[in-house]
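[User]
Protein folding is very new to me. Any chance you could explain this protein sequence and its structure tokens? I have pasted everything here:
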Amino acid sequence: MADGKRRATPRKREKAPAQKRAATPKTPQAPRRAPAARPTGAAAPTARRTKERAGGGLRLPSVAPRGEKADGPQPRQRRLRHQRGQALRTAGIVAACVAALALVAVVALFVLRNTSAFEISSIEVEPTGHVSAESVQSLAQVPAGSTLLNVDTNAIEEALRKNPWVASVDFDRRFPSTLGIRIQEQRVDALVLMSSGAVAWYLSDQGTWIEPVMVEPTEGQSTNDAALAIARDNGCLLIVDVPATVEPSAGAEASDATLDAVSQFREGFSSDFDARIVCFRAPSAEGISCVLENGVEVSLGAPTDIAEKERIVEGYLAEHEGGLLLINVRVVSSPAYRELSSDNLTFGSGVSPEEEPEEPAETAE
């Protein structure tokens, strides 16, 4: 070199021997699970949960099942809950309004019923064939100062029932001041001629005595015929020859055994056969007989085998149309009949022709 100096030669660095890193043991991966079977129908979930990616931990977007929108059913459920809540609130408001109106009505009724605003000033009565308007007015006795709102109709009806013809009472409040009263009259079911022969009693279809009526036969007319005429005028049945033990009382129940036997026959007969009976004879509960509209008398006896007795009578009537006077079915095994042209009693099945027939005896129940 010109300047006489020597340059120092740079020394090369020696590379250190590379150190090997220790191998990091690999974490064993869990075995993959087989995908779960996808549920179907109503049990299928609304959205499936996505799996995590192996490296990034990201979640895939949920996928809605077929037939549903991507936003899932939750908004719809919220809407339904909201609608139900609104419906409940509306129902509560309506119920509160109704309760308030009812309370107002009760208070108004309590105030008005004790004021003279609807005080009864007139009573209108619809009379019947046996109950006059005057009788109703005198029996009703509506207290002075009563109003259409506080009048005691039960007490009025109880007072009106003192008339045995009264079956029931209907009331009509005609505002502002008129009370209407309509009477439902007892229906007459039978006329019972007493053993004295001069008095008969009306018997209602409820089995209670109504009131007596005088039987006054005209010249040449029997008491029974006069009573039958009264019964026909009232469209009811006639019962005669009752024993002296029958003691009627207005409004009381008819409880005599003979009348009970007649009722059993009427209930046991067919409606067609019962409608053809115009009169019952009832001297005893075991000696009942009846007279049909064609004039034939039927000896019935005690109220047993009623349907069989009717069958036998109908058979004789069909076989001897218009030619019979009496039919005896007291003993159904030995029925008998008497023709108009004969004074002898002819027996039906059950009696041998060779035997001398005897009058069938009455049988007790």
In short: The mean pLDDT is 80.
